[in-house]
Amino acid sequence: MTKFIAIVSGKGGVGKTTSTLNVGKALVDLGHKVLLLDANLVTPNIAIQLGFMNPEGTVNKFLRKEKSLKDITYLHESGVSVIPASPSYTEFQKTNPQALPEIFEHLDDTTDFVLVDAPSGLGFDVTQVIKNCDEALIVVNPNLSSVMDGLKTIQLVNSHEKMVTGILLNMSNSGRNELSTEEVQNILGYQIIANVKYDRKMRKAVHKQMPLNYLYPHSRSAKQFSQIAKHVAHET
Questions:
Q1: How far apart (Å, rounded) are the C-alpha atoms in residues 118 and 88?
Q2: What is the residue range of 67's domain?
Q3: Is 231 within 8 Å of 193 (Cβ atoms)?
Q4: Distance (Å, rounded) from C-alpha 157 to C-alpha 10?
Q5: CB 211 within 8 A of CB 51
Q6: Domain tally for the chain?
């Protein structure tokens, strides 16, 4: 049975897409079959961050019944499979977000995990993703505005009676001029399952269009993503 996990945040720019890629790769390293679904129809980034600049097969075309599931699924060299959303504004205009649940129905029982890179915010698109997933991993940065937006996201997840997997604290700065892990946990009411500190290797990986833990499997950040994967797969 496929487990659907939404990777969500209240605010954009917190590292949600890079987290999706690296948690996915970490699950692959544990021996699981993993698919990454870009459900951000407005500003998709997964394909771009994996080197697929203008994919022919996209979730947009699947929802319009122009492509099959096989046509829109790509296997990356890191071992993760990917279903991209189109970066084209024209394609976005032609796509009905209300049709998004259909892709979830077709992916059930096809893989071990589907990690869904959700849009930011609290709008209709995010709600559609949360309603069709089993649980949600919340990504926040260690500043008050990001954490408070994360709290709203948690409340949205809870309102649909879905499980909060935990908190991924991203781009922390060793405690300097930021909220502590204890403060973040107290505000959000959930455990921080990984603390991914600011890492220049992450910038290099994004530039090279690869998951960080594929290029630098022994790095500090890679170990944190592995910790998340073990938590998600109940292997801790």
A1: 18
A2: 3-232
A3: yes
A4: 11
A5: no
A6: 1
Residue 187 CA to residue 152 CA, distance in Å, equals 11
Q: Sheet containing 3-8: which strands, arranged edge to edge?
A: 74-75, 81-83, 34-38, 113-117, 3-8, 135-140, 163-172, 192-197
In tens, the pLDDT along 27-75 reads 999 999 999 999 999 999 999 999 998 899 999 999 999 999 999 999 9
Tokens of 93: 């205009």
Tokens of 154: 């948690």
Q: Are strands 74-75 and 3-8 parallel, antiparallel or unpaired?
A: unpaired
Confidence of residue 98 (pLDDT cuts 50, 70, 90): very high
Rounded Cα distance between 171 and 11, Å, is: 14
- Residue 126 φ/ψ, nearest 5 degrees: -65, -45
175-202 pLDDT, tens digit per residue, is 789 999 999 999 999 999 999 999 999 9
| Residue 59 in tokens | 């979730």
Closest by Cα among 30, 24, 28, 1 to 134: 1
State the Cα–Cα distance between residues 60 and 136, nearest whole angstrom: 23
CA angle at 56 for the pair 55 and 61, rounded to the nearest 5°: 110
Q: Which two structure tokens, joined as six digits, stand for 207?
A: 């530039």
Strand, helix or coil for residue 35? strand
Tokens of 129: 């993703």
Q: What CATH number is associated with residue 131?
A: 3.40.50.300
